[in-house]
Amino acid sequence: MTGMICGTGSYVPDNILDNHDIAKLVETSDEWIRERTGVVKRHIIGNETTVSMAAEAGKRALEDAKVDAKDVDMILVSTISSDVILPCAACKVQKILGAERAVCFDLNAACSGFIFAYNTALAYLASGMCRTILVIGSESLSNLINWKDRGTCILFGDGAGAAVVKACEGKNYQIAAHSDGAKGEALTCPGGHVKGWQQMPEEDRYMKMDGRGVFQFAVKRVPEAIREVLEINRLKIADIDYFILHQANRRIVEAVAKRLGVEIEKFPMNLQEYGNTSSASIPILLDELRRSRVLQPGHRIVLAGFGAGLSWGADIIDWKI
Ligand code: COA
Questions:
Q1: Is the CB of 214 under 6 A from ligand 1?
Q2: To test the ligand 1 pocket, which listed residue (185, 212, 272, 306) has its Cβ within 8 A of the most ligand atoms?
Q3: What pLDDT does residue 238 have?
Q4: Can you name the CATH fold of 176-318?
Q5: Best residue among 22, 27, 31, 36 to mutate for probing ligand 1, ranked by most atoms within 8 Å of CB
Q6: Which residue stretches of the chain have pLDDT < 50?
Q7: pLDDT for the residue 276
Q8: Hey, whose CA ends up nearest to atom 28 of ligand 1?
Q9: Which residues are known catalytic residues?
Q10: Where do the structural domains in the chain lie, given as residue ranges?
Q11: How distant, in Å, are the alpha carbons of 40, 146, 202 from that of 156?
């Protein structure tokens, strides 16, 4: 038994902040941001919240899959930016969707979050404990950003993506998933949860990043994980139609493609429109590729995520819808 994605959905706020808007907040320019990151604009929450975006993306994925919310066994929300610590976002989504039977919990693996949540769903489906799981990545990163730090505020955006994963007979691919907590200081965000946060200087509460360190980590570890997942499943690079990477930075995606020796056309991107939406980036891109019919039944794709933790991983999916 394995899992199959049978519907996708996404939601992004209407409110847009382009590079020129950012240049009014910090010393930077549209040209610098485009050249170093590929990001042109990002969508930022207005009245939305992480939960409301998660619920809307989840609802759209259920509609796409033609699955009734009452038939969902589990809701998994991957997020680092939930509205509150308790209750978890997944339980709030359950209430909005009316998915009464579902067991619900959140998962925090930062920008690898959607992949790790999808892997968790696969394990429940393969064991026979669940038949239908709604996996969602949703982020309001604008709440975690220090809008005075030009090293981070240029990169991130808000949004949500979701996939309905159902149990099915089929090939059970091995996964590649890794963490290195010893390098965790490269990307941190204490938020308002740590002891003594009230006394912390304001800038210390928000996201902090060693940009170069994270860049080097990503361009080394992501190709490694993709090679690993292909090898353990006895596949070759040529067997893959599309490589769907976490949308952090155009230069990272280009460097990964180059290291793998694969043409860049096989690495779809939408980071120019949304920036880095952490655990929402892969499911938003999947949803766009499905709706624009770039993804077709019979395609074999690789998903690869990387980010804070540090954590990273890659999956292989036979696309069937
Ligand atoms: N606008 C203009 N100048 C900027 C700037 C900005 N937004 N941010 C940094 N600079 C300046 C620096 O101060 C530095 O100036 P100096 O040479 O006078 O000291 C120069 O640009 C180069 O800085 P550096 O940090 O080396 O730039 P970079 O090429 O590494 O680009 C990032 C910075 C953040 C874009 C890049 O490191 C990156 O994308 N890293 C990965 C981050 C990421 O994806 N994180 C999430 C992973 S899930």
A1: yes
A2: 212
A3: 97
A4: Peroxisomal Thiolase; Chain A, domain 1 (3.40.47)
A5: 36
A6: none
A7: 98
A8: 212
A9: 111, 246, 276
A10: 2-168, 176-318
A11: 11, 11, 19
Q: How far does residue 154's CA lie from ligand 1's centre (Å)?
A: 10
- Prediction pTM value: 0.96
Q: Name the residue among 164, 241, 168 with its Cα closest to residue 5.
A: 164
Which letter, b or e, does each residue of 21-59 get, where b requires 16 or more Cβ atoms within 10 Å of its Cβ? ebbeeeebebeebeebbbbbbbbbbeebbbbbbbbbbbb
Query: Does the fold of domain 176-318 match that of domain 2-168?
Result: yes
Inter-residue contact 43 to 15 (CB < 8 Å): yes
The pLDDT, as a whole number, for residue 205 is: 86
Kindly report the protein residue whose alpha carbon is nearest to atom 1 of ligand 1. 28
- CATH 3.30.470.10 for domain 2-168, yes or no, is no
Q: How far is Cα 88 from Cα 83, in angstroms, rounded to an integer?
A: 9
For ligand 1, atom 2, the nearest C-alpha belongs to 28
Distance 151 CA to ligand 1 centre (A): 6
State residue 256's pLDDT score.
98
